[in-house]
Design brief:
Layout (H helix, E strand, L loop, with lengths): L50 H10 L4 H4 L16 H13 L5 H10 L1 H7 L6 H10 L1 H17 L7 E10 L7 E2 L1 H23 L8 H40 L5 H10 L4 E2 L6 E4 L5 E12 L5 E7 L8 H12 L5 E3 L7 H9 L3 E3 L21 H10 L2 H23 L10 H24 L1
Parallel strand pairs: 1-7, 7-8
Antiparallel strand pairs: 1-5, 2-3, 4-5, 5-6
Helix pairs in contact: 1-3, 3-15, 4-5, 4-6, 7-15, 8-9, 9-10, 12-13
């Protein structure tokens, strides 16, 4: 008797039967006019160990009373409530840590990126508010940097026993072609004044017409252009005076004769930028000359925490050491024990002044012009402080201490470069300093996480 088979017989994968009639294919189409309601759990958008949560905790630990004190909207009175300053500060800190320096790009991320959406917490943020917040609170950001260091010092994590300082020349938001001489600046000013007058006449001829956003933008741009040219003309005398002083110094050092000085002054008439009057042409790290700013950072060697920030439009580091030491004292009520700087900072007057305040300077000694004399021997005319500096830099202990500068200051500078500090997108010394303070505050936030675990 045949047993029934437990397996199917025949072709196990039969071909699909053709449709009885030819019909159009069926698929799901996109319908972007359809209204949808989405439920989003903001708290679940980012993991518990995400960096953005650490930045938010850091911001919550800061004293932001100065920012809240500027809010004019109060309970019981009319007016729109502004955005919580903690949100704006945290957004910029997180954006800076990821190398984002554009307010428009940051505003787009607040709409599309989960981490930025979590920081916003459902609050709508636009690029104009972000841009204004970044540059309007320079003094407050300066105080917050001091707070970030004070907290770590109180916990015994950071000390000021040894501080390394270094300058970082960064491209300005101005082109080389924007630098004009006095005659050209006067012509630019006349053109700018004529444009402002024309726009005002245009508005006066139509008093009943409402000002459109485009008209307001044109008038504002013309006024800003006129103000920049006026500022450039105002700064020209100081630029001329500085160039003459440099030429006289070269004559005193016998690097230039008086006749050569006169010829050089005729060839190099001072110029100033109509785009960013505060910017100066300086030598960049790649060897080229472009408009820029000199960002000075002072870093504690034991923790790589930034303890001082300054921005200047001087192309060199000569004479920048004492102002930084005084800034550290003003911030933290004490001077550093040791100052580690490179050869560009080694000004004899600065070494003497810091020695009087019991600050030990470690900086390279310039090689002598003759091989018969050691660079580390005191020279005739050296003060006691300068002579001790020369001797100190010739000892193995002094050279070992100085090597900490490269591992500290240059490492911090490299971190800033990796976060996008190649060119400023804002103009003016005050705004540039605000951006530099944001970089320093971001760096200290991340260092605090690493140091405190």
């Amino acid at each position: 008797m045949d047993q029934p088979s437990l397996l199917p017989t025949g072709d196990p994968f039969p071909a699909a039967a053709p449709p009885e009639t030819a019909a159009a294919p069926r698929y799901q189409r996109a319908d972007r006019r359809q209204m949808r309601l989405q439920v989003i759990d903001l708290e679940s958008l980012v993991p518990a160990d995400h960096r953005v949560r650490t930045i938010w905790a850091f911001v919550e630990g800061l004293d932001l009373s100065a920012l809240y004190g500027r809010i004019r909207a109060v309970e019981g009175h009319a007016g729109r409530s502004p955005i919580d300053p903690k949100i704006l500060l945290a957004l910029w800190l997180h954006a800076t840590s990821e190398g984002i320096g554009s307010a428009r790009a940051l505003a787009d991320l607040c709409e599309a990126h989960a981490a930025y959406q979590w920081l916003c917490g459902g609050v709508s943020v636009n690029y104009h508010t972000l841009s204004d917040f970044r540059v309007e609170h320079e003094r407050i950001l300066d105080d917050l940097l001091t707070q970030s260091v004070a907290v770590l010092m109180k916990q015994g994590v950071v000390s000021l026993d040894r501080v390394a300082q270094d300058g970082m020349r960064t491209r300005a938001s101005a082109g080389a072609a924007s630098f004009r001489r006095e005659k050209t600046l006067q012509e630019c000013l006349e053109v700018a004044q004529a444009e402002v007058a024309r726009l005002r006449t245009e508005l006066e001829e139509q008093p009943g017409a409402s000002r459109s956003r485009e008209q307001a933008a044109r008038e504002r741009a013309a006024q800003e252009r006129q103000a920049r040219v006026e500022e450039a003309l105002r700064q020209l005398p100081a630029i001329r005076e500085k160039k003459e002083a440099q030429a006289q110094q070269k004559v005193a050092d016998k690097e230039m004769t008086p006749e050569q000085q006169e010829q050089a002054s005729q060839r190099t008439e001072p110029r100033c930028s109509t785009t960013d009057p505060d910017a100066r042409v300086m030598k960049m790290p790649d060897g080229g000359y472009r408009p820029g700013y000199n960002v000075q950072l002072a870093t504690a060697t034991d923790t790589q925490v930034i303890v001082g920030v300054e921005v200047s439009n001087s192309g060199g580091d000569y004479g920048q050491m004492v102002p930084m030491a005084e800034q550290i004292q003003e911030r933290h009520d004490r001077l550093p024990g040791d100052m580690l700087v490179d050869g560009g900072f080694a000004k004899k007057e600065d070494i003497e002044k810091l020695d009087e305040q019991e600050v030990t300077v470690y900086a390279p000694v310039q090689a002598p012009k003759t091989s018969k004399r050691s660079a580390y021997e005191p020279r005739a005319g050296d003060s006691a402080a300068v002579g001790a500096w020369r001797v100190r830099m010739g000892t193995p202990e002094g050279q070992a201490i100085y090597r900490q500068r490269a591992a500290t200051a240059e490492c911090v500078n490299a971190a800033a470069r990796n976060r996008g500090l190649y060119q400023f997108t804002v103009r003016g010394l005050r705004k540039v300093r605000a951006v530099a303070l944001l970089f320093a505050l971001t760096h200290n936030c991340l260092r605090a996480v690493a140091l405190l675990g």
